[in-house]
Amino acid sequence: MCGIAGLVALDSRRGIDPALLDRMTDSLAHRGPDGRGVWIGDGVGFGHRRLAIIDKEGGAQPWLVDEGSAALVYNGELYNHLELRDELERDGVRFRSRCDTEVVALACVHWGVERALQKFRGMFAFALWEAAAQRLTLVRDPIGVKPLYWGMRDGILRFGSEIKSILSDPRFPRTPDATVIANYLSHYRLNLDGNTLFRQIKEVQPGTCLVWEGKRRNETRYWSLPAVPEAEKEDPGEEAVTEEFRSRLREAVKRRMMADVPLGAYLSGGIDSTVIVRLLKEMKTDELHTFSIGFEQQGFNEFGYATLVAQQFGIPHKQVNMTSEGYFNGLPELIRVKDTPLSVPNEVPLRFLSRILKSRMTVVLSGEGADELLGGYTLLMRSPHDFLLARQLAEGDDAFNALDRARLSSTFEQLYGDAVTQGQKAMFLKLYRWMQDDELQRLFRNPEHLKRSKRDIGRFWDRVWGELDAARLDPYDKVLQVLERYHLGALLLRLDATTMAHSVEGRVPYTDIDLVEWVSRLPLKYKLRWKGAAEEEQSRKVTAMEAAGRLDVNKYILRRAFRDQIPPLIADRPKTAFPVPLDEWLYGPYKQWAKERILTRKMGELFNLNELESFLSSKRGKAEGMKLWMLVNLSIWLEMYT
Q1: Paired strand residues for 124
Q2: Whole domain around residue 638: which residue ranges?
Q3: Do 286 and 216 belong together in one domain?
Q4: What separation in angstroms does the CA of 328 have from each of 273, 325, 585, 594?
Q5: pLDDT 10s digits, 461-474
Q6: Where a domain ends, among 571, 600, 631?
Q7: pTM for the model
Q8: What distances in angstroms separate CA 51 from CA 31, 499, 635, one per listed residue?
Q9: Residue 298 has pLDDT above 90, yes or no
Q10: CB neighbour class for 410 (10 Å; exposed up to 12, middle 13-18, buried from 19)
Q11: Residue-wise over 478-508: b if at least 16 C-beta within 10 A, else e?
């Protein structure tokens, strides 16, 4: 795991600035304390900071092929590099190291990038320069575990593992993108369709290749999540599916045990991390350590569950308490590390935990991706239930008596407003957001900015939903596709930022590409189902809010496959978010702290300060602290970067 950076002169009249390349490379030192390398060719310069995981002696980068006919900088792990090495050697390719970097470089040169990517299994972001063709290729792994950004200025293309690398040039524009800011406040996502919070900086999207030959740029999606209509899915039966799922997840964990350094795992006490730890314990012969973090306030840690798991498996386990003071001191620090506002509140404690576990290990396995893969988000996953129920009501289905009809109609009106008449997309997006349109309308200073932002965000979701409609997907599969393709990215960026801030590599078995493709083709009942016939019958006249988590079972196949291998209390435990006491803090002892950070001149350039003050002082409901937290994040970011 590493940090990569580079400069490419797309205008032949421009040269590469060695001092700038040095600054870009060194800005990523936290990602790679074990080595540093810089290479400058004709109109191109690559920089690399190394965190040594495999072949600690022989994996230095940038990696040159045939004395510079091709050059590679690479961040990630190729879990099947040994198998690909054997295949390349049978083709006559010769190696000089045992690192996966060389496999990536020679595979791309020997087979071509497109064919090599179809064979790669891992998490990665890399840049390949081919001198003869004067061609630069930027690539990001299929799911987007590893980040990669790029930007243009004065005929020079810049790229890096983090935005700060591009901003190492003090002349590079730092203009905020109002549309992405609106999207952040609405949907807590830090990017929109390849755009970041900086107008001139883009991200390489997951599963995508960007190729420049001269000034001409071509973008290709080399991998997409399979979209299979429910009627076309095959069902080999529950026993066969259970065995296959268990085998595939075990293989995904085994792949991620590849390392020449100590390895451990996060253990929250939920089923996702518990199953990973169970599989690690089964396969790992030397000592395994697990870690969890929480807050002292009652209800804001999961230590009891994590302790239960660790004791049953006989694993040394460390639990860390974080104070409110530590949290609010760490918030600006992590924004500076990440170059963006934070997307979820638990990023601060996870970064703190990475600092602690670094003293014992360099690689940690984590449970991100299970909820998106297996329908773990309780209410969001049941939102199609409301869409289908509302459609029945609109069609005058006589299954409802007058009392049921009136009650359901009133509840839908409260939850969805006029979205209930606009279809599934509108109903889903009403739930899938923090700030609603009327709140943004009040807060944004420039109505035209907000109007343009709403239009662009709306076009994005129109395109996404149009693709899902064209694939003839079931309403539930549409939600699963959105979660896997778009929601998961924020959590993976969280993992990357909080671990790499302290030179720790985070690995995520639930994002294994073979597992993801196989699960996407499973019938819905293996992810989400009613508890039984009685619960299914009861669900016909209640809303998703009343049914989700009470009448149904999510992540069914995960629970089924490992029920006899983990504590029953964990197997049956419903999903709970990592709890952070934002309401208690931001409407209590940190209310003035939040106010001082939100009502600033920088915020006044985008927002109406009078409305912000009114928003802060008005009586808020439960879970409204999240909105204040997002505004605090945004304000701190604006002060730091604009």
Answers
A1: 76
A2: 581-642
A3: no
A4: 27, 5, 10, 10
A5: 999 999 999 999 99
A6: 571
A7: 0.96
A8: 7, 12, 32
A9: no
A10: exposed
A11: bbbbbbbbbbbbbbbbbbbbbbbbbbbbbbb
